[in-house]
């Protein structure tokens, strides 16, 4: 129950009963002067009443006693069934302090919430007096409480809980991934930019990359993907591999199957290799579990390679680098990206999405749309034809049942299927061109051109890769 005192720098004297002659009663006033004399502070809100206190020197001190009214939602205040009968926010302690502006406050039952409101009032009062060129005076707070009592321990316990709550909030705020501030919405709805979206496989949420993307303002949409790990755009699918996953996928052949599935449904399949650079950034330490250099992985940056000085670079068929090169040769549309940390990967993804359309659920390939084993070769053959690309080959598959049926179509039918006259003209000319067998002289010239030169090229990668039938030959032997 806080009480406020106003008008005196010190509180000296005794509080007497209302029947004492030193305490003015509040009879009905017959004149405005008597009313002002009887009521120190008129028109107080609910839960407050005032009287005068006379000290030893004969000075009268107005005292305001306040009890939290019902329904004020303060700690210790009773609840009210009908809150419309109360004066609402006017009964709050902060409103009462702003109205009375007391100099001394006595709390008979200290509450942490009351102390915080008094601190806010004291700061506002200090700022107001400084602005108005007045001498700022601090607000004195006194507790009417017994030492080592239950009330004191209850107050100290609440202070300790408040301190622990702030420490927990500071700790969580330092590690939270959600942005602390959100940009205000634009005033013109027509200028609202579409939110950047990335579809992420639910299994990838075990890593920290989705959280880093969310921190950069990208909307992360979790979904179960049948192929790939990240969908950046309708034509960009990313398969993320660590070094250990890359080695295992290359050895088992699973990466080949994943690249095949991505190449059939996306124009730009991407293989992302995410690994950490060595501590010194110059050498790559050979793992103690891999005594041979075949189990190592190196980052080649032009002339300088991040490998140890004594490591022998073997480009054999069983080498990981050779397998990766053969994978790129087999899938010419495959793009290989590398990243040192997940933070770099998040930066890379945001740059790849600049200026590109957002992916949608309707454009994602479903499990039932996967190509069967019977028509895989036919689709690969279809994609090799001029005028057919990853953008329009699905239209041909939906309208044409076989390659023989495609050959029998006329130009107008191809234009209707491909919805592009130029592509249809290229395909029609290719399917209906007249084949003329080459003469013997032309065949001899072609054979001479295909014959290798006497000089070996500077980097004969094809001659270094050992085939399965020539494992026993030397590194520089021909196949």
UniProtKB/TrEMBL annotation:
GO terms for molecular function: damaged DNA binding; single-stranded DNA binding; single-stranded DNA endodeoxyribonuclease activity. It holds the Pfam family ERCC4. Residues 1-40, 66-85 are annotated as: Disordered. The keyword Nuclease applies. Residues 197-277 form the ERCC4 domain. The keyword DNA repair applies. One of its GO terms (biological process) is nucleotide-excision repair involved in interstrand cross-link repair. It is found in: Nucleus. Keywords: DNA damage, DNA repair, DNA-binding, Endonuclease, Hydrolase, Nuclease, Nucleus. One of its GO terms (cellular component) is nucleotide-excision repair factor 1 complex. InterPro entries: ERCC4_domain, Restrct_endonuc-II-like, RuvA_2-like, XPF_nuclease. PANTHER family: DNA REPAIR ENDONUCLEASE XPF. Belongs to the XPF family. This is DNA repair endonuclease XPF.
């Amino acid at each position: 129950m806080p009480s406020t005192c106003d008008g005196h720098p010190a509180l000296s004297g005794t509080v007497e009963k209302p029947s004492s002659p030193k305490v003015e009663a509040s009879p009905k006033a017959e004149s405005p002067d008597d009313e002002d004399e009887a009521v120190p502070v008129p028109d107080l809100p609910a839960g407050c009443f005032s009287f005068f206190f006379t000290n030893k020197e004969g000075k009268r001190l107005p005292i305001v006693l306040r009890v939290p009214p019902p329904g004020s939602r303060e700690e210790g205040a009773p609840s009210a069934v009908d809150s419309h009968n109360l004066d609402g926010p006017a009964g709050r302690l902060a409103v009462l302090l702003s109205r009375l502006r007391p100099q001394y406050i006595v709390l008979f039952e200290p509450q942490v919430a009351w102390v915080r409101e008094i601190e806010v009032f004291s700061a506002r009062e200090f700022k107001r007096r400084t602005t108005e060129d007045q001498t700022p005076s601090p607000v004195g707070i006194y507790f009417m409480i017994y030492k080592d009592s239950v009330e004191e321990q209850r107050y100290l316990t609440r202070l300790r809980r408040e301190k622990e709550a702030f420490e927990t909030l500071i700790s969580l705020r330092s590690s939270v991934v959600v942005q602390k501030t959100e940009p205000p919405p634009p005033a013109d709805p027509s200028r609202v930019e579409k939110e950047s979206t990335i579809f992420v496989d639910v299994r990838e949420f075990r890593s920290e990359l989705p959280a880093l993307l969310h921190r950069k303002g990208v909307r992360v949409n979790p979904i179960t993907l049948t192929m790939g790990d990240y969908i950046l755009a309708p034509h960009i699918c990313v398969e993320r591999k660590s070094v250990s996953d890359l080695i295992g996928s290359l050895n088992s052949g699973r990466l080949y199957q994943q690249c095949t599935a991505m190449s059939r449904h996306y124009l730009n399949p991407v293989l992302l290799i995410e690994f950490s650079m060595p501590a010194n950034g110059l050498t790559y330490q050979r793992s103690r579990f891999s005594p041979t250099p075949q189990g190592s992985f190196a980052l080649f940056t032009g002339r300088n390679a991040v490998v140890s000085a004594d490591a022998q670079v073997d480009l054999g068929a069983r080498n990981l680098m050779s397998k990766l090169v053969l994978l790129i040769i087999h899938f010419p549309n495959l793009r290989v990206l590398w990243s040192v940390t997940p933070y770099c990967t998040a930066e890379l993804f945001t740059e790849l999405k600049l200026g590109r359309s957002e992916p949608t659920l309707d454009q994602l390939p479903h499990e039932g749309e996967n190509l069967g084993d019977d028509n895989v070769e036919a689709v690969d053959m279809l994609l090799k034809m001029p005028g057919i690309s990853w953008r329009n080959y699905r239209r041909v598959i939906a309208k044409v049942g076989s390659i023989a049926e495609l050959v029998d179509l006329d130009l107008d039918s191809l234009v209707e299927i491909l919805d592009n006259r130029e592509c249809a003209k290229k395909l029609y000319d290719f399917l209906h061109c007249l084949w003329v067998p080459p003469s013997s002289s032309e065949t001899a010239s072609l054979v001479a051109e295909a014959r290798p030169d006497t000089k070996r090229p500077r980097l004969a990668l094809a001659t270094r890769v050992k085939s399965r039938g020539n494992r026993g030959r030397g590194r520089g032997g021909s196949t």
